[in-house]
């Protein structure tokens, strides 16, 4: 019975296949080859479709990704610099049928190319590249062709700080990890009967008054109301 249950839990088509790449969520289309590309200190980042600096931010994000994963910062070069192997980020507005958040990622022995119709797609393609950098030795990614677009328009995670307080560092790390796994909406539960939980300097009364309560209702005792008689200020 246990063996039957274990077999039922295996993904469809798991028999006779190579282990999947460490990609979460799994892209809509993946073709893996037997070659590889190696990121070295001579590898550059090329920006294609670079008009009036619109790709500057995504170029910096790509550079920061290499620093975080490999420990060195690549140079950002124009698309015409093809002499060196590199990571190419191509903004192609007429790329169907990817939509704003879809992308194509191709790894060959000569380099990596990510193309998308809009910057969000390039960003999500970079997150897939980040995961590919964890498939083997540092800087080595397998040759692969990936096309991906989100199945759901709204992809969110929720964090409740009404009753549970978190430091700023936790919040920013939480959002970073969401973005790495292609979530696009942060649902932040900021207030309860216990009070308001984020300081906004433009509206100081939110924390000076809104974070305090006379007492908390006990269980579901609304009618008739029963409180705990414990005043609290949580800012």
Spell out the blueprint of helices and strands.
Elements (H helix, E strand, L loop, with lengths): L1 H8 L19 E10 L5 E5 L7 H15 L5 E3 L7 E6 L11 E6 L2 E6 L2 H14 L7 E9 L7 E5 L7 H13 L4 E5 L1 E2 L2 E2 L8 H4 L3 E2 L3 E6 L2 E3 L4 E2 L2
Parallel strand pairs: 2-3, 2-4, 4-6, 8-9
Antiparallel strand pairs: 1-7, 5-6, 5-7, 10-11, 12-15, 13-14
Helix pairs in contact: 2-3
Give a nutshell description of this structure:
This protein has 235 residues and is an alpha/beta fold. It has helices spanning 2-9, 56-70, 119-132, 168-180, 205-208; strands at 29-38, 44-48, 76-78, 86-91, 103-108, 111-116, 140-148, 156-160, 185-189, 191-192, 195-196, 212-213, 217-222, 225-227, 232-233.
Low-confidence stretches: 1-18
Q: How is the largest sheet built, in terms of strand order? A: 1-7-5-6-4-2-3
Major sheet attributes:
7 strands, mixed
Helix content: 10-25%
Structural class estimated from helices and strands: alpha/beta
As for the number of domains, it is 2
Average pLDDT score: 85
Second-tier CATH architecture of the largest domain: 2-Layer Sandwich
Rg to the nearest angstrom? 24 Å
Shape: elongated
What does this structure look like?
This protein is an alpha/beta fold. It has two domains: 21-148, Chitobiase/beta-hexosaminidase domain 2-like (Chitobiase, domain 2, 2-Layer Sandwich), CATH 3.30.379.10; 156-233, no CATH class. It has helices spanning 2-9, 56-70, 119-132, 168-180, 205-208, and strands spanning 29-38, 44-48, 76-78, 86-91, 103-108, 111-116, 140-148, 156-160, 185-189, 191-192, 195-196, 212-213, 217-222, 225-227, 232-233. Helix 2 packs parallel to helix 3 (119-132). The longest helix is centred in the N-terminal third of the chain and has 15 residues, at 56-70. The chain is elongated. Residues 1-18 have low confidence and may be disordered.
